[in-house]
Design a protein that fits this description.
132 residues, alpha/beta, 7-stranded mixed sheet, 2,3-Dihydroxybiphenyl 1,2-Dioxygenase, domain 1, 23% helix
Amino acid sequence: MTPRLDAIGLVVADMAASLAFYRALGLDLPADADSAPHVEAALPGGPRVLWDTEDAVRSYDPGWTRPQDGAGERIGLAFRCDTPAEVDATYDALTGAGHRGHLKPWDAVWGQRYAVVLDPDGCAVSLFANAA
């Protein structure tokens, strides 16, 4: 199976303000999500939008810093893999081909096998699969 684009992730300073903005654009987001560190919304056709607070990102990527003057990561692409082994294999294939690994595969607390590589422009591309 080929990994497929599944989600677009946003790193936000203020979850409530960000969700209010996207609610105004018609996304169905629960009101109690405003204080959550991670929120997801399905879009028509299957892709999802994911929001993570800056603190949530720092919990698994201690080196992450808020972008300054347009530099840094606030948005990323996420590709779903079928299995945890496919996350590892895809990460190894990409880094083996010379692309920069950002976060080696790990078992995330939210129940996924997860890894991050950087595209040629330095944009984060997440690879993930359900852990079970």
